[in-house]
Design brief:
By secondary structure, the chain is of the alpha+beta class. Helix content is 25%, strand content 30%.
Length: 338
Amino acid sequence: MKTKLMTATALLILFNNPASAGRDTFRQDPGVELPHLIPEDGEDRRQISASTQLFLDAAKRLEEKTKRLAEAARKAAEKEEERKAREEAEKARLAEEARIEEENRAAAEARANDIYPEIYVTQGKLFSLYDDEHMTFSFYPETSGWHLFQTYGFTDTVMEIYHNGESIVNAGKSDGDDGIDNNELQHKYLEAGERYVVQVYLEYWTVHGSMLLNVRAEDPVEKLWDPLTLGYAKKVWLAPTRTHFTTKFTPKESGWYNIETFSDDEDTVMEIYHPDGYSMVAAGESDGDRGVGNEELQVKRFEAGKTYTIQVYMQDLDDEGFAWVHVWRSLREPINMS
């Protein structure tokens, strides 16, 4: 084998430098301008062919190996890029978590040090005002969405709602008397976690009185058919094609609860059914109009763990519009304060 390789090497040298070859070994074909070297010995020709094939095979293997190395390098580069991208994404995620945590910490600290008492959707605030006094509260919504602020009492009240120091009450509506009698009612879209400052005072300084301030949130549409949650209102479209809306409420504590409706200037009717099936509303009081305008307001004692059924519909079944129903609590009955 060693002899064959040496012979092939010698022949390749001769091919590359034909001038040095002797005429005894190679001859030139007549009529060919350039020398055409032809081995005279058939064995030498076979040796050259075999050696050339070995060279070509080695070159092919080298080419394939080069391709494999290049592909491996490409994949390694891609993996490195992916690793760097994951690393950057993780850094960004951790930085965002740290930012949110710091914001939450600062918000919690600010809330803990708030100079005003808080109000909640679950419980109305009872307070008294004299002359030019005013009461100021802070409210931190748990969810983003529409909220309704309402006062109850015998006196003419004024209400302002501030966010970041700016009033969000429409001009001329601080004393809009959109609630029951001369009370206030404001319907505002609020962002979860933000701080809103609510201020209530008397329209006339020569009077005094006690009043309630209630705020309620509006449940999102996807929760319409879920049971009522304390402090969260259901908003439903009532029309001749859907005249009644029925929902349920299961209190966690026994006690007195306020059940109230509200609508787009329509006359609503409300029935409340005990778990045993009978109506808890006195005869003729289903359409008692003790709420805002022609809306309903009932105060009933519920037992913890029992499920009560509440049904709302329009007084005129041909009417159509949005209606709200919600349940909330207070230290005094809002009916006796309006």
